[in-house]
Amino acid sequence: MNELFSGPAAVPATAQARARLLARIHADASFDGAEQATLMFLCDRQQVLLIRKRRGHGAGLVNAPGGKLEPGERPLACAVRETREEVGVDVDPGAVRELGELRFQDVDGSRIRGWAFRADRFHGTPATTPEAIPFWAPMAAIPYASMWPGDRFWLPWVLANRGFRASLLCDGAEVLETRVTPAGPD
Length: 186
Fold this sequence. Notes:
Blueprint: H1 15-27, E1 35-44, E2 47-53, E3 62-63, E4 66-68, H2 75-87, E5 96-106, E6 111-119, E7 132-138, H3 151-159, E8 164-171, E9 174-182
Parallel strand pairs: 1-6, 5-8
Antiparallel strand pairs: 1-2, 1-4, 2-3, 2-7, 5-6, 8-9
């Protein structure tokens, strides 16, 4: 658990109270205790490479290649590694742009801090692996109905190549409250 959230009994009953809690989560500089993960969005003209997860967290859902950081690993290195492992595509780290920080706070007290990356140059042809079935989706027709419900709030920022911070208060797959703001200066 963390100091901002202590479980189901602490879920604010009103939208205004949930918005205040989410503002605190959004402003928390460290987001301590969060599991750390990445997503890599490979873009080619007006298409984006997505995957249908075959196993693990989010199995059956559509997402981008990505996964959990290994001990001592930096987010960019994780995103590049996971992309190679999940779809067999190599990405030059110098061709990648970190676009977003994602903060997911669940009412059960679990939390995930993620980073969304975008690459417009990469090498190889996406291939199905035990982890994922890759496919190209037109940016104008993202299959949000097959994705995590919160993706519709922040993925448009990635597709527009704009930096952002997104914080989502969730109850399992249900999004209770969301906040997305432009990325601040580095």
